[in-house]
């Protein structure tokens, strides 16, 4: 219902309003800057320059029509074949430690790139360093796992494995829920 009412007001006396807008004088161009006035005066005197600027150059248009560009995307197989040797060149090693079974969703890693650690190896390294830092030095860990010494020192400095401490209750006479 509201659309009909608004349409009536929108179309009311439409033709007269259109004729009034068309009959208005067109707005004049903005005044030019005084510095360009001399340039425009000089250009208007040289009408042959204006003609050559606005004239269509037929020989150039014909040459432009003969230009044809044909582009083709490179084949995807070519790109894949170039990347495969780079992956194969990366040296790999067997992991030093593995988890028995498949607890908590860790996948069993078969080989590890040199210079990197698997999650299990990283936790083992951190735990060994935590329990005996004199035996497991940064240099020994870097040599054992084929790591960069700088990265090994950063690993040992900034990563600390969690330590779970079970604190026994102070008194035995508190109520507890017994397992059934």
TrEMBL record:
Transmembrane segments: none annotated. Belongs to the NDUFAF4 family. Binds calmodulin. Interacts with NDUFAF3. This is NADH dehydrogenase [ubiquinone] 1 alpha subcomplex assembly factor 4. It comes from Polyodon spathula.
